[in-house]
Predict the structure of Peroxidase.
Amino acid sequence: MARIFLISLPLVLLLLAPSEAAEEPSHKPSSEFKTLFPLLGRHEDSNTVLSGNVPEDQNTLKERTPGKLKKDFYRKTCPNVEKIVTKTFSKIVKENPGAIGHMLRLQFHDCFVNGCDASILLDFTPTGDTVEKSSMFNGLLLKGADIIDDVKTKVEEECPETVSCADIMVFTTYEAMSLAGLPGQKPLGGRRDSLISLATIAEENNLPRPDWSMDQIMELFGRKGFNVEETVVLLGGHSVGVCHCDAFMERANNFNGTGKPDPILPANVIEEIKKSCPNAGTNLYRNPPVNFDATPTVLDNLFFKDLVEKRRALILTDSYLYEDARTRPIVEQMAADHTLFPNRFPEVMAKLTALDVLTGTEGDVRKICRSLN
């Protein structure tokens, strides 16, 4: 069956333009800045006062999701699946706390390219085409496939050929959010696994380029159905995890080939980056990894407070959140209210994990997540 991602979206989502009051910052990213990170959003009124209980656009979500996802989907066929996921992933996190951040980013890269269908997990396809995980947009940036291997193995032991890799990924992501301090949520089930995985899909304007303007970012993610507030919330996922020096060190040393630091970075942040990344031009240039904020395993609002109070952001596009007039008011609200981001993040993740899913008889349920049956 043809995939939903090829269907043209309503014109209103494609013809988005910035308001005259929201001027694009003059600061331009480097075309050689090689790292790509999740950026989400669509033009809408960013001045809305947020309460932490913003209703989703249910009509849009229903159009993009077949409506066959439901809670307790495996109640009869694999009733212990969520307990298995919880036990297995909790053990992994005890040994590797970074697994929380890995899962959030793996989930985004899967859903945003071709829908939440576990296509990101495939190592090869029968056609021999390059798969998503080998795309220039993923590569060393993306981790977590081995986590899903471990969880899938445990699930298969109790419920063989029953639970899809796409659902296991979502269930594991929900557990990651819980371990990061958010209230536990009941995930929906019923996704099926993709039969294809193509790097070309990831590279055909389905993931952002690091040198795009904020307008380009908003247009792309608007096509996926996310508004400006959701953009900020999902980028708040950088509240957890680390970033390697090669993703941002040029901002402190040689931004845009000028031989000077990025002018929007404060002096203390420039100094922090230089101290954290002392090996420019050597084989050690990627390391050590640097925390996005001081609480790398907690989904809190410190990421936003750092932007507002210190203008601290490792990634260039994170800096744009504060520099752009459309997103700054939301960043400021997230920073001021420590309950707002933890309330909104799971709500927006629920929308993300229902994006363009396969259900019913579409796709398959893989026995091994890295390969087709």
Observations:
- The radius of gyration is 20 Å.
- DSSP finds 15 helices and two strands in the chain.
